[in-house]
Amino acid sequence: MIALHLPALQVVLPLLAAPLCALVRRGTVAWAITLIASWAAFAAAIGLLLRVLDEGIISYEMGGWAPPIGIEYRVDLINVFVLLVVSGVGAVIVPYARKSIAARFGSTEQAWFYTMYLLALTGLLGVTITGDAFNIFVFLEISSLASYVMIAMGRDRRCLTAAYQYLIMGTVGATFIVIGVGLLWAMTGTLNLYDLAQRIPEIQNTRPVLAALAFLTVGISLKLALFPLHLWLPNAYAFAPSVTSAFLAGTATKVAIYLFLRFFYTVFGGEGFFVTTPLPEILLLLSLVAMFAASIVAVFQSNVKRMLAYSSVAQIGFITLGISYATETGLTGAMTHIFNHAIMKAGLFLLIGNVLYQLGSVKIEDMAGIGRKMPITMAGFVALGLSLLGTPGTVGFISKWYLGLAAVEQGQWWLVALIVIASLVTMIYIGRVVEVAYFREPTAQVSQLREAPPALLVPAFVLVGAAFYFGVETSLSVGLAQQAASLLLNAAY
Question: What is the pTM of this model?
Answer without folding.
Answer: 0.90
